[in-house]
Amino acid sequence: MKKVITYGTFDLLHVGHINILRRAKELGDYLIVVLSTDEFNAIKNKKAYYSYEDRKQILEAIRYVDKVIPENTWEQKISDVVDNDIDVFVMGHDWEGKFDFLKDYCEVVYLPRTEGISTSKIKKDLGIN
Ligand code: C2G
Q1: Which stretches make up the Cytidyltransferase-like domain (predicted)?
Q2: Is the pTM here over 0.95, yes or no?
């Protein structure tokens, strides 16, 4: 079984998230999403609208997603990849190069982002700060 992993906040779920999850799953047979906790979002200077539990429940309902685990630190990726026997690490190309250290442990793939949509754009368009 070819195992894929990806990371993110996935707040206010939109087609950009669905597109990366679909393409990540297409690279293997099993997709783990490592979901930023509310506490880690604070470290990322992000404030999600939905709580971790709600974002987790939403992700678990997506057909491409097989497992959701918490992302608590920047430093957990190597152990996540090793402990979960991961073959492919996937992120949007806004992260291009940032996680190349994982190439010692698995394939690293950066996929094009979906243009014209983002959680911050949704908030801005709706007049939410
Ligand atoms: N994404 C995308 N297209 C968009 C918006 C997002 O492909 N229009 C991708 C991002 O590139 C990322 C994933 O969707 O791969 C999740 O995006 P965010 O929830 O914004 O995650 P981020 O804050 O980038 O967290 O340790 C890594 C971090 O947790 C990544």
Answers
A1: 5-124
A2: yes
The CB of 113 under 6 Å from ligand 1? The reply is yes
User: Per-residue pLDDT for the chain (129 aa), expressed as one digit of tens each?
Assistant: 999 999 999 999 999 999 999 999 999 999 999 999 999 999 999 999 999 999 999 999 999 999 999 999 999 999 999 999 999 999 999 999 999 999 999 999 999 999 999 999 999 999 987
Contact 51, 35 (CB under 8 A): no
Nearest atom in ligand 1 to the alpha carbon of residue 40 is 29
27's torsion region: left (phi>0), alpha (psi -120 to 50) or beta? alpha
ipTM of the complex: 0.98
